[in-house]
Amino acid sequence: MRALDVMTRTVITVNPETPVREAARVFAENHISGAPVVDDEGRLLGMLTEGDLLHRTETGTQARRRSWWLEFFASTRDLAATYIKENARLVKDVMTAKVISVQETTPVSEIADLLERHRIKRVPVVYDGELLGIVSRANLVKALASVPKEVTSAASDVDETIREAVLRELGAHRWAAPAENVIVNGGTVYLWGVVTSVEQARAMCIAAENVPGVKGVEDHTDFPVVIPAM
Length: 230
Description:
Blueprint: H1 3-6, H2 20-30, E1 34-38, E2 44-49, H3 68-73, H4 76-87, H5 91-94, H6 108-117, E3 122-127, E4 130-136, H7 137-145, H8 153-170, E5 182-185, E6 188-191, H9 198-209, E7 216-219
Parallel strand pairs: 6-7
Antiparallel strand pairs: 1-2, 3-4, 5-6
C-alpha cells in the first residue's frame, strides 16, 4: 500500500493569517488535533498542532518562569521563540514551519517509520509543494485492519482495479464515502467513515457489492459521536 491508497483527501486546513483563537475553534469543532497550514494556492507552508497551542497567555498555561540561572544561560533565541508561541496572534507565528512530508507513492511502511521516529501523529502528502492529502495514525490502523493474511503483488493489482471501479460507482452519488474510507484487499471491500443513516451505509455496501470482482463487503462505518450539552 502507498500513501495515495490510505490518505485522507478532504483535509481541514488553516491559513497563515488565521488568528490563533480561530484556529483553536476549528480544532474544537472538528475534533482534530492538527491541521496543515496552506496559502491561498493550496501550497503547504507548515503544520499547526495542539502542541503549538498548549502554552498560551489567554488560558494562563504559559510555561513557568525559569529560575534566574536558567534564564541567564538560555539563548535569547530560545527566550524569544517561547514568547512568540505564548503571545502571537496569528497562525504563521506559532506553526511548525519545518514539515515532514511524503509523496503519493511513499509506501505505508515508510510512513509508519516516520510517524514513530519523529513522534508525530500525521504527515501531509505533497506533490510539487501542493497539499494533496494527509496520512494519520488512524489511517494506518484502518489499513492494518483491512489486510488479509497473505497478499501477492498480482492480487494487489487486482485490488487496485476493483477499488478504482468501486470509487467510480460511489463517486456518482452524494451519499458516498470519501475515497480514503474505501480499502480493498483480497477482493474484499472495507468501508470506513461516518454515516448519517442506516440507509446511507447500506447503499454504499450495495454499490460495492455490484462491482465485478468484489468477493465481499465489510461495513465498518459508524454514526457520529454526539457530545451531550453540559
